[in-house]
């Protein structure tokens, strides 16, 4: 049986996804910014090397080609975030509390990595079919894990959710949405937005109980 990409991702000693050297992470952040500003096809490896203050040969030491660098920028969202945040659904608390923590972490990550999120949303089709499938596999696992959590919440009597799969897709549409419009100088900070989204998601899933009825009868 093929292992889930989430389970087979390389990890560092601390259990977090392996990200390579600090210098490599800096290059990925720079590439994310330049891809967002100029588009993936509008940026060459030499321009990236110049912006990073290194020789092109040094850049190729970290990344074999531009597509590999694009994949790493997308993996900031579609691998690293997912691997780091999936365990939140297995943590302490009710199903609603755990889902709220995941929603907050998801939206907060979006706010802290806006360039990478833009690239992941716009430049995915520039990947080769094999690499595109690797990214899509992470996304499918994430959606399926959320759907399973919703189904478990229904079984526990915490959620009213007739179609967990459809609801998981709707939740992802909602919490991915700020990638299109969030403005750090706007009315809400990303932390405030994350709190409101978490509250909104859990409220929509919470069963409406008759007034005066004890939700936890003895």
Note the main attributes of this structure.
218 residues, single chain, mainly alpha, Tetracycline Repressor, domain 2
Describe the protein's architecture and organization.
- This protein has 218 residues and is mainly alpha-helical.
- The chain has a domain at 73-205: Tetracycline Repressor, domain 2 (Orthogonal Bundle).
- Helices cover 66% and strands 0% of the residues.
- It is built from eleven helices and no strands.
- It has helices at 5-8, 22-38, 45-52, 56-62, 66-85, 95-112, 114-122, 129-155, 164-176, 178-181, 190-205.
- The chain is elongated and about 70 Å long.
Which helices and strands, and how do they pair?
Blueprint: H1 5-8, H2 22-38, H3 45-52, H4 56-62, H5 66-85, H6 95-112, H7 114-122, H8 129-155, H9 164-176, H10 178-181, H11 190-205
Helix pairs in contact: 2-5, 2-7, 3-4, 5-7, 5-8, 6-11, 8-9
Q: Nutshell version of this structure?
A:
This protein is 66% helix and 0% strand.
């Amino acid at each position: 049986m093929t292992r889930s990409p989430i389970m087979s991702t390389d990890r560092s000693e601390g259990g977090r996804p392996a990200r390579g050297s600090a210098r490599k992470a800096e290059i990925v952040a720079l590439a994310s910014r330049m891809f967002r500003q100029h588009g993936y096809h509008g940026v060459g490896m030499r321009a990236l090397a110049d912006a990073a203050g290194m020789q092109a040969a040094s850049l190729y030491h970290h990344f074999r080609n531009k597509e590999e660098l694009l994949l790493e920028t997308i993996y900031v969202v579609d691998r690293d975030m997912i691997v780091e945040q999936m365990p939140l659904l297995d943590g302490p608390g009710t199903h609603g509390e755990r889902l709220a923590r995941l929603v907050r972490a998801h939206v907060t990550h979006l706010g802290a990595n806006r360039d990478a999120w833009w690239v992941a949303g716009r430049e995915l089709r520039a990947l080769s079919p094999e690499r595109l499938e690797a990214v899509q596999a992470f996304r499918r696992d994430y959606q399926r894990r959320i759907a399973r959590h919703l189904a478990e919440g229904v079984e526990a009597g915490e959620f009213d959710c007739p179609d967990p799969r459809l609801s998981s897709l709707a939740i992802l549409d909602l919490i991915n949405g700020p990638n299109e419009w969030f403005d750090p100088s706007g009315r809400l900070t990303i932390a405030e937005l994350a709190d409101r989204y978490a509250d909104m998601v859990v409220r929509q899933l919470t069963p409406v109980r008759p007034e005066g009825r004890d939700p936890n009868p003895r």
